[in-house]
Amino acid sequence: MTTPQQPIDSGFGPATTSDDVLQGHDLSGKQAIVTGGYDGIGLETTRNLAKAGAQVTVPARSLKKAHAALDGLANVTIEPLDLLNPASIDAFVAKFVERGKPLHILINNAGIMANPLTRDARGYESQFATNHLGHFHLAARLWPALKRANGARVVAVSSRGHRRAGVDFDDPNFEQRNYERWVAYGQSKSANVLFAVGFDAKAMQHGVRAFALHPGAIITNLAQYISKEDIRASGVLDENDQYIYDPVKALKTPEQGAATSLWCATSPTLDGMGGVYCEDCNIAHAVPADSTGLTGVRPWAIDRALAQRLWALSEKLTGVRATLD
Q1: Strand-by-strand arrangement of the 209-214 sheet
Q2: Which of 38, 124, 185, 277 is catalytic?
Q3: Active-site residue 185, yes or no?
Q4: Domain segments of the chain: what residues?
Q5: Residue 295 class from Cβ within 10 Å (0-12 exposed, 13-18 middle, 19+ buried)?
Q6: Cα separation, 176 vs 174, whole angstroms
Q7: pTM of full prediction above 0.90
Q8: What value does the mean pLDDT take over residues 159-182?
Q9: Which of 5-14, 237-246, 280-289 shows the lowest per-residue confidence on average (mean pLDDT)?
Q10: 8 Å CB contact between 315 and 323
Q11: Helix 40-51 and helix 63-70, axial crossing angle in degrees, nearest 10
Q12: Domain 18-216+253-318 in CATH: superfamily?
């Protein structure tokens, strides 16, 4: 069974906030993990899950920043994790899985964007390695806890930036082609969507469903490698260099930006669904490859054959066999 890539009557829209999505939800007894859950929309996601009663584990590369951001917040545990370090991922997972608790919600939120060319210790390009491979490794290793939940959801925070590029299966790490930071970002975001498609196809028989999403355009530390001139040119700042909020154009507050992640993770409207790309708290339209619009999902990001191909490539590059049995 596959879920059509077509909008549904979600009851929400572009201006929906995280509070709106979780109104009336009691997540007591639920276990959640939010990567990057101490900054930007990740912080807002953590706050709202915890406020609704979930026990939230926040993996953090910078423990100092995480503790400063999450200090005093109930129901939150901080653990070390570096998505570029396979040993760090395995250590984090071992500690979580050894508790014997189910994992009801996994939100792969952490990421980097448009940075200069850097590589991890394996030689893998950092955007692909952080945004996709690290999260693939994490989700695969967490499979026993996800399966134990008897109805878990895995959420991959992608971006409308996926429209910039599909996955180059012949040279995903820019070893032959010239590095272009926005192409690398687009590839990693397309990989996020394909991951959700592939994970959902393998996991649905066990009641685990996966979703990908575009949160909106929110100025956070994710934009640290983008110059002020480029930010101005993108049309998100007014004449006084103040951020413009216009959710209809996807220019959102962090509260609005976190809403779609939380909707994918908790909405009963999505029961029995999965493997789709969402935006504005709804399933997005599928659009043609040559679409010039900013909304919708391109065909190379939701192609099931490409999802299977990426799964095999990810297993090869990470050394993680992810059968999801």
Answers
A1: 76-80, 55-60, 31-34, 105-108, 153-157, 209-214, 276-279, 282-283
A2: 185
A3: yes
A4: 18-216+253-318
A5: middle
A6: 6
A7: yes
A8: 97
A9: 237-246
A10: no
A11: 50
A12: NAD(P)-binding Rossmann-like Domain (3.40.50.720)
